[in-house]
């Protein structure tokens, strides 16, 4: 059985599992299940009140982007991925991922409800801020190709569109743009601010790391199973998509930090974006483009969510529903 296909009656028997990596990721995702109100976010209100206007602007910028784009990812999954794969273990994982994206959306709603943030301003920013709107339009055009046109997954061009959509939402949106925002979000905790907000971000990052693993495995599996996709011109197109995304992220980060805040400015974040991009390129089999050092080496420790303990509650924030599940960092 190939992983690509659109037969409604195909892929209805789970065992024997064909793609064990998808089954393993599903098991881990289930073990990682969490709910936002398990974190006492109200404890961070004192920190928020003493933050500078530039710090509050950066936080609003992040929330304004994350909130609608968690739902945009769900559309990319529901319309651009789920209908075009046959493997039931893949469907199981995608169903859990879609629930996680909904949970992340509710997490950002919880943040908007807790902090005195202008909800209307936060909701409208993804349309009103040009750099944010440009990123959303980039993503939307790939999703629209999957939803508004007839995609024939049996053709080379149809399979290429499937890969393009995966690159756009998984590698670029989740693997670069989201991770850039995660670093900014966790930078507050580096200065002993918004620690519970940081714990929520840890849980989101843990989910997103599995989303990224699934997407990369899916891309590489489709390429391996379809020799007609293995051409240099298509590879260069994909590389070009990723590098164009860096330019958009640089503009977005300049809007987030018009003046910079303590320990962080647009140049710092954009170096991290270039570092992330090189890692994603390498994971897809490309040579790195920027060859820059990681300016935020502390992120590796910050993401060790299996060991984190909630600062206020002294409860382990990395519990797993099933303690026997294999731990995946």
Characteristics of this structure?
329 residues; mainly alpha; 65% helix
The CATH topology comes to Ribonucleotide Reductase, subunit A
Number of helices: 11
Helix content: 55-70%
State the fourth-level CATH superfamily: Ribonucleotide Reductase, subunit A
Proportion of strand residues: under 5%
Distance between the termini: 30 Å
The averaged pLDDT comes out at 85
Major sheet: size, sense and barrel closure? none
Silhouette: globular
Please compute the radius of gyration using only Cα atoms.
20 Å
Number of strands: 0
Describe this structure in words.
The chain is mainly α and 329 residues long. It has one domain (38-302): Ribonucleotide Reductase, subunit A, CATH 1.10.620. It contains eleven helices and no strands. The protein has helices at residues 20-31, 45-50, 53-80, 88-114, 119-128, 130-147, 156-190, 195-225, 232-256, 266-283, 298-302. Helix 3 (53-80) crosses helix 5 (119-128), helix 3 packs antiparallel against helix 7 (156-190) and helix 7 packs parallel to helix 9. It is globular. Residues 304-329 have low confidence and may be disordered.
Per-chain topology:
Elements: H1 20-31, H2 45-50, H3 53-80, H4 88-114, H5 119-128, H6 130-147, H7 156-190, H8 195-225, H9 232-256, H10 266-283, H11 298-302
Helix pairs in contact: 1-4, 1-8, 3-4, 3-5, 3-6, 3-7, 4-8, 5-6, 6-7, 6-9, 7-8, 7-9, 7-10, 9-10
């Amino acid at each position: 059985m190939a992983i690509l296909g659109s037969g409604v009656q195909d892929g209805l028997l789970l065992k024997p599992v064909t793609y064990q990596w998808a089954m393993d990721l599903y098991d881990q995702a289930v073990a990682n299940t969490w709910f936002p109100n398990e974190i006492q976010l109200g404890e961070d209100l004192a920190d928020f009140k003493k933050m500078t206007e530039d710090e509050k602007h950066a936080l609003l910028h992040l929330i304004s982007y994350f909130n609608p784009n968690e739902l945009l990812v769900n559309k990319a999954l529901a319309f651009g991925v789920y209908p075009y794969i046959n493997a039931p273990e893949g469907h199981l994982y995608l169903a859990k991922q879609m629930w996680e994206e909904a949970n992340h959306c509710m997490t950002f709603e919880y943040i908007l409800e807790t902090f005195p943030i202008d909800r209307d301003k936060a909701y409208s920013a993804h349309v009103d801020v040009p750099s944010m709107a440009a990123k959303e339009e980039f993503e939307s055009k790939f999703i629209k190709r999957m939803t508004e046109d007839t995609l024939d997954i049996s053709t080379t061009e149809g399979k290429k569109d499937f890969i393009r959509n995966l690159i756009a939402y998984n590698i670029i949106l989740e693997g670069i743009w989201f991770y850039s925002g995660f670093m900014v979000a966790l930078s507050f905790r580096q200065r002993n601010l918004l620690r519970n907000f940081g714990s929520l971000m840890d849980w989101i990052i843990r989910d997103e790391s599995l989303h990224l693993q699934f997407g990369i495995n899916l891309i590489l599996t489709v390429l391996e199973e379809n020799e007609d996709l293995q051409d240099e011109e298509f590879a260069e197109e994909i590389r070009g998509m990723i590098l164009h995304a860096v330019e958009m992220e640089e503009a977005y980060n300049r809007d987030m930090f018009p003046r910079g805040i303590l320990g962080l400015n647009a140049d710092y974040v954009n170096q991290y974006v270039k570092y992330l991009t090189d890692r994603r390129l390498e994971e897809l089999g490309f040579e790195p483009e920027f060859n820059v050092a990681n300016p935020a080496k502390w992120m590796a420790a910050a993401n060790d969510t299996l060991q984190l303990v909630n600062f206020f509650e002294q409860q382990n924030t990395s519990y797993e529903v099933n303690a026997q599940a294999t731990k995946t960092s």
